[in-house]
Specification:
The protein is α/β, with parallel strands linked by helices. Helix content is 22%, strand content 26%.
């Protein structure tokens, strides 16, 4: 009986990383190899340019139209539009299973 319980526990522990693997996120050059889950879904606001967003205070929520060109760290990405480049913080919970690449707008 103890062997069965031990085997069940081992199988559960070994299979957990497979079940916990994230889905979605950014595919492109990355300085880290962390898996993510998701992307943004919800109402859209007025579109802001990168040049305008740089003049706003830190942690201001904005809607940008362009491309994520690089993953810098866990939640930090380099975003680019026609007016420039800016670092954006996108939490894992915001991806919602959507996968984007360098060419996705």
């Amino acid at each position: 009986m103890k062997k069965i319980a031990a085997m069940t526990a081992i199988i559960a522990l070994v299979s957990m990383p497979v079940l916990a693997a994230g889905q979605g996120g950014f595919t492109g050059p990355s300085t880290t190899t962390t898996t993510q889950a998701g992307g943004f879904t919800g109402p859209s606001g007025a579109v802001t340019t990168v040049a305008n967003a740089k003049s706003l205070r830190d942690d201001t929520w904005v809607t940008l139209r362009g491309k994520i060109v690089e993953r810098i760290s866990d939640d930090l990405y380099k975003f680019q539009d026609a007016s420039g480049v800016i670092n954006v913080d996108i939490d894992h919970k915001r991806w919602n299973g959507v996968t984007v690449g360098r060419r996705t707008q």
